[in-house]
Specification:
201 residues; alpha+beta; six-stranded mixed β-sheet; 9 helices
């Protein structure tokens, strides 16, 4: 989901075309997730913590793995799920991380039958948790992103690039995506090619 919100073409390149390329950012993310990916659970101060918890939603046709889900005890018995997602950098201007976390909450709600009103994003650069309330706007954005990604998967068509965006500079797939080359209109490419041929001696 994070890929789909960051860039729908990136999501298609990774999940449809099976392209992947490491860069510094992806490598740092791998190191950060090394502990969470080992799985397991522990309990402290009444809170049960489960690492690398598989999640799924039949309604949304969605599955994944949460880095960490804390289960907080409720005063009248039972537990409330609280998903926590680990990120390597710092809070971002776009909402891709929040959508990824909200998708986990939607899965948890279906799996547990109980509301999941909020969660947190932990950023390694700031070493802080940022609380994320799953309000109506974020839930709507998440479900729209899920529908967009489902459409890409069902059509099996990779969306065209949107070049010259700041996000392209940090994307590990920029050389595979080739946004500047792929996005040039065919007529412009033809005209430029003809002009070069006519100028050749």
């Amino acid at each position: 989901m994070q890929h789909a919100v960051y860039c729908l073409r990136q999501a298609a390149l990774i999940h449809l075309e099976r392209m992947w390329e490491e860069n510094r950012f992806t490598a740092e993310g791998d190191v950060l997730h090394a502990v969470a990916d080992k799985g397991g659970s522990r309990k402290g101060r009444g809170v049960r913590r489960v690492l690398s918890l598989p999640l799924g939603s039949r309604r949304l046709n969605l599955s994944g793995v949460a880095d960490l889900v804390e289960f907080h005890p409720l005063p009248k018995g039972g537990e409330r799920a609280f998903p926590v997602e680990y990120k390597r950098g710092k809070p971002k201007l776009h909402r891709a991380d929040e959508v990824q976390l909200c998708a986990q909450a939607l899965c948890l709600e279906e799996m547990t039958g109980a509301p999941v009103p909020d969660g947190a994003l932990y950023y390694a650069q700031t070493k802080r948790r940022i609380g994320v309330p799953f309000d109506a706007d974020l839930r709507a954005l998440t479900e729209a992103a899920i529908a967009d990604l489902a459409q890409v998967f069902s059509s099996r068509v990779t969306p065209p690039p949107t070049p010259h965006r700041a996000r392209c500079r940090g994307c590990s797939l920029v050389d595979l995506c080739r946004p500047d080359t792929v996005s040039r209109p065919a007529k412009r490419w033809r005209d430029e090619t003809l002009a070069r041929l006519l100028e050749a001696p």
